Structures are given as structure tokens and as C-alpha cells.
Amino acid sequence: MELQGKVALITGAASGFGEAMAHRFAALGTKVAIVDLNLEKAQAVADAITAEAGEGTAIALRADVSKRADIEAVVATTVEKLGVPQIVINNAGYTHKNQPALEVDEETFDRVLAVNIKSVYLMVQSVVPAMRDNGGGVILNVGSVSGIRPRPGLSWYAGSKGATNVLSKALAVEFAPMNIRVNAIAPVMGVTGMLADFMGVPDTPENRDKFMASIPLGRLCQPNDVAEAALYLAQADYITGVELPVDGGRSV
Predict the structure, then answer these.
(1) Is 121 a catalytic residue?
(2) Which residue is catalytic, options 94, 121, 157, 238?
(3) 8 FRET partner, CA 20 to 30 A, in 33, 106, 141, 159?
(4) pLDDT tens profile 27-54
């Protein structure tokens, strides 16, 4: 897929992986809808992209991705202001703290599944008909290496991301006749606002070193690592149904 002039809708795009993806796609001529629960931060990202790429290249939209009305409004506004998205990236995510499975309360469990799984369902329901009628496109779901090689402490989160990874494969097969490709990106622990929760300890250089020791390439995942993977999968017209680890070898 040629990215120039295309439209991308990215959730969780006010910071971290999503922000990096928004900037990278916009730099290649894609118009971007910055979707996030925090509208102020989303607007700041949209303003920065507009300053770099020109008027009409980015809009900021607020949404709780677990709410149908919010997702439907976001899709409708994106279509109205930018056009039908050819690229949709379900990046918004939520985690419980790194802790024993028996200590995660039900409210937190429900929120993890709502943000990480139900959001994909709602987005697919809302955007696929328009994407299909517009000739197709690509959906990228940000899963996690924990959904491939889980470890104690993030069990319920790992389960939600394992579902994300498998859903991407199932949807890839179902939507292929519509010319809609679906892939999963599976990052290892990244330098984002959720890092301390993933580690379960304060974000200090010493604690980072302990986790980096388990990654063959010796560093945490940076937002731009995920952005580069997203660019590749968006443009690779013959790749669908893959679960691409962006993990420095962690899952090997």
C-alpha cells in the first residue's frame, strides 16, 4: 500500500507507541486521526503533526475505546473530516500491575478485557463495512510478546493479548475476500507510561536492567520500533494473519 494520501485511524495515539506511529505515518503523507481518552494530549500530537505536515493532516478525537458510541463517533468523524480510513491501528491498551493472578480484582480484570479485546470487536464492527466498500485496507492490532511467551505476574493481561494475537489471525482469514488484511504487532516491554505497571516495581535504571537482561538485544522496546513494524505491515500487501514480535529476541 502506498501511504501518500491515505487515511490512518490510530487509538491510544496521544503518547507512547501510538504517538510514534502517528508521526511516522504522517511523515509519509498519511492523514491521521489521533484517538485517545485524553483529548488534550491527543490535540497536542495532532497540532505537532499539523505543524510538520500541513493543515488537514491530523485531527484529535476523544474516545473510550471500550464504548460502542465512542468508537462509532470516532469512525464517523474520521470519515467526514479525512475520509474512509485505509489503515486502522488498535493500539490503545490497559494492564493490571505485575502481581499474582489471585490479587487482581474483578474491576481491573474487566477493564483489561474491555480495553484490550472489546475495543477490537467494536472497531471492527464500526469500520469494516466502510473499509470494505472503499476497496479494502489493513487493520493492525497491537498485541504483546506476553501473549506468545507469558510469564507470572501479568497473567490476565497476557491472556487478553493472546486473544488479540489469535483474533488477528482469525479476522485475517475472514476478511481476506474483502481485501482487508489483519496483522498483530507483539512488542516486548516498552518505554511507555505503563512500564512501571509491567515491571511491578518502580521505574529505576536498576529495575530496567533486570528486565533488559532477559532480552537478547539488551534493551527495552522503543516507540519507534513499533512504528517501523506498523509501517512495514501497512505497506506489505501480501502479508496478512501474522503475529510479528517486536521484542529484541525475547520470544525466542
Answers:
(1) no
(2) 157
(3) 159
(4) 999 999 999 999 999 999 999 999 999 9
